[in-house]
Design brief:
This protein is α+β, with helices and mostly antiparallel strands and about 170 residues long. The protein has one domain: 2-Layer Sandwich (Beta-Lactamase), CATH 3.30.450. Helices cover about 20% and strands about 30% of the residues. It contains 3 helices and 6 strands; from the N terminus they run E-H-E-E-H-H-E-E-E. Strands 1-4-5-6-2-3 form a 6-stranded antiparallel sheet. The longest helix has 14 residues. It starts with a strand and ends in an 18-residue tail after the last strand.
């Protein structure tokens, strides 16, 4: 299955309840602006159930590089290792994935939130799983320098401990 990217999407496109929580949090911070400020993200305000699915990515502009600032526990469990602090181009990925991931982050720099759905091969021949991703830009001094992402791997399978914290009713 090829990567399906949507730049004009609504909340209903997101299947994962955890990613919906992250999207709602970003939308609330954004208000009527193009994106929230990087300093508005507060881990204590992110819905607890969604924290394992958070991925923060620093975006360097000249030259362009993307570095995983923080990878939540779901992401490290799905990957089989913690790639926090690593640049995308340092990771061993199949085929053209490094280029495609860089392309995705270039869309973020253009202030384009993105929803993606694709198949991904797990390390050590553990199979191929569906991945759902939201990529949401954050501003610093008017420039996108970070992405607030949510990633849910294999949500239709019982491979990872998804229910680390129960979903809470909206306040």
């Amino acid at each position: 299955m090829p990567i399906i990217r949507q730049f004009e999407f609504d909340r209903e496109a997101i299947r994962s309840p955890y990613l919906r929580l992250l999207y709602d949090y970003w939308i609330k911070l954004r208000g009527n602006r193009a994106a929230p400020d990087i300093h508005e993200i507060d881990p204590l305000d992110i819905p607890r159930a969604a924290l394992p699915y958070v991925v923060l990515v620093d975006l360097e502009h000249d030259p362009f590089r993307a570095r995983y600032r923080l990878v939540g526990t779901h992401g490290t469990q799905a990957a089989g290792w913690d790639y926090t602090g690593r640049y995308v181009d340092e990771l061993d990925m199949p085929n053209t994935m490094v280029e495609e991931i860089h392309e995705d982050f270039l869309f973020a720099i253009q202030l384009r939130p993105m929803y993606a759905n694709y198949e991904w091969p797990l390390r050590d021949n553990r199979g191929i799983v569906n991945v759902e991703l939201i990529q949401l830009p954050l501003l610093q001094n008017g420039v996108v320098t970070r992405c607030f992402c949510g990633e849910h791997v294999g949500q239709d399978l019982d491979l990872f401990a998804d229910e680390m914290a129960p979903l809470e009713k909206s306040k």
